[in-house]
Amino acid sequence: AMQAAIQPYICAAISKTVNVPEQYPFEDFESLYLDAWKAGLKGITTYRPNSVLGSVLALEGAPQDLDQSDPDRRIRIGDAPQVALAALRWPHRPKLTAGSPSWTYMVEAPGNRFAVFVGHVENGANQPFEVWVNGERTPRGLGALAKNLSMDLRAQDRAWLKLKLDSLARTPGAPFQMPMPPEGTLMPVAGNVSAFAKVVEYRCKALGVFDGPEGETPLVDALFSRKEPKSGVDGTMSWTVDILNPTTGDDFAMFVKECILPDGSKRPFSVWLSGAYPMEFNGLTRSLSLDMRVIDPAWVGKKLRGLKDLPEAQGDFFARVPGSEKQAVQPSTVAYVARLLIHRYTMLGVLDPEGYPLGGGTALWSDPPSPEAADRSRVRARTCPECGHPSLIRRDGCDFCTACGYSGACG
pTM to 2 decimals? Predict the structure, then answer.
């Protein structure tokens, strides 16, 4: 019809190719040329595609030059535990006016020699509640790991504690053979972190922690992924930050892998380090990675708050304040790692800058402090004009910042 409308206005002949479908009925096709002659057309072409000749015009899916896959790829968690988060209660470190019994074991590793102290309370059953490390050649970072693990001991979830200790026992390092109590039988361990975990596990077994029925497992039930989720060939998004401590020589990058929970929120689930740092830091990152996978962010928030002010002898340094252009003195490399992790949680809208859950976490429970304790713990300080921290106090009649050392007006 289109060719018939144009032909009277053209002195030469024109031709139009009619693509006939392969399944077109022959009765409809046989009158096509006669209809063209009656319309005054001087030429017409028909083409019927087939499997041998193919087709003249065809739409084929051409590969896109532009990769339109999601650039913000994060592992998606298909299901998350719906647990009664109020059941995730843990007691504070008990205040024992008469002291508490503890057990000590000396670990002698190549280049290191340190003691592991495991304290417990006797209230009908022996319950370990804290672990410490000490010694003139204690590996850096092991004290922070002991502090982190102490909270796990007080969680009263035996399955969770076993999961933590098993993971730490596999942490690679400088392997050696350690005489295990009580007989002194030599046992190969993967490194200092592994030896530390084996000693704590032995003491817990000696106290009967893992005896009897398993009981409630609130923390294990609250894991949105018991093992670290693995990405496919497209990878997953991670947050990366560089850390440099000129005082100790630490110079490494920290990688925080992230996922998307079923409610659409983004959550870190693993932290890794790469560069120059003590191998024992890997034990701390392993422990924190497991803490990150507890569905209630109040748990990892409490862990990070316990580390963000952890000092190290001759290990403090000057560095950027997370979320600010200003600099301040950082108590240690571990403390700075904790502050950076809190900052990332803040960027994702999970924790506030102090490490408390924005949604009001329910996993952690504690007795309200007494008015006297609240009064003692209240910070009476102003904001420092140099570093921006609420650490400006009066010392010797002058303004002094306990964070960055700023000295201001006197009198």
Answer: 0.71
